[in-house]
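Hey, sorry for the delay on this. The queue was backed up all week. Below are the sequences that define the complex (chains, strands and the ligand SMILES where applicable).
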Amino acid sequence: MKKELKQVVRERYADAARRASEGKLVDCSPDCCSPEEHALPIIANLYEDAEVADLPQEAVNASLGCGNPAALAELHPGEVVLDLGSGGGIDVLLSAKRVGSTGKAYGLDMTDEMLELARENQRKSGVDNVEFLKGDIEDVPLPDSSVDVIISNCVINLAADKDLVFQEAFRVLKPGGRFAVSDIVACTSISPEVRENLELWSACVSGALDEDSYRGKLEAAGFQGVDLEPTRVFTIEGAGQFMGAFVRARKP
Ligand SMILES: C[S@@+](CC[C@H](N)C(=O)[O-])C[C@H]1O[C@@H](n2cnc3c(N)ncnc32)[C@H](O)[C@@H]1O
């Protein structure tokens, strides 16, 4: 199941990267890929126009997040940031601006087409305090205690093994480091049929944790000060009620 799930996720986002490179907006909903506008309210209008005005259009088109973690994370000049599942790179490029030339922003993604798009967006942006890494958020290719802030935007729900993701986030953070993530959280219980539907999983629905599980798993990994702040609440027909949430935690 885990291997098959990753393959379905990779295929969906490889396709999304190809569409964004062709100048189209992309969408992670199961049955919709509107070229005109994001059909899912959860991923529409997440960024201020001024914030993204100088980013390549392909980075904005490829935005598939459910929040604005780089803004909410309160990044400081000189910090090292890691974006788990960086997609077309929008939050990495925004973080790079906030941490400045003395800081660094890493993006990590497992999908070659997304990495290619993100690196092209970096080239167009002309920023050099950015590096996109290929790899799995369940096995982060960075040393222990090397990162000040972990951000992520609508990706952790896609992971098959969330415990591993949180353990890896904890390992690479420096003591005092911050976890500052936007993600989808389930407000109602998810049926076994929906849980097993890989298309719905790859569309950021079936893999969502509920609030108690999110909190419990972060604490089990060693995090403290866990806080979940709802940003948008929405219903998916046949699957239940969900929220976009900003999740904060700290490595002691
Ligand atoms: C919903 S998109 C979000 C992309 C980006 N964060 C954004 O806001 O536009 C999910 C991204 O996470 C990546 N991804 C999903 N599961 C992953 C995993 N286990 N390891 C690394 N990347 C993963 C996908 O390849 C895709 O680029």
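The mean pLDDT is 92.

I'll add it to the shared folder too.

S.
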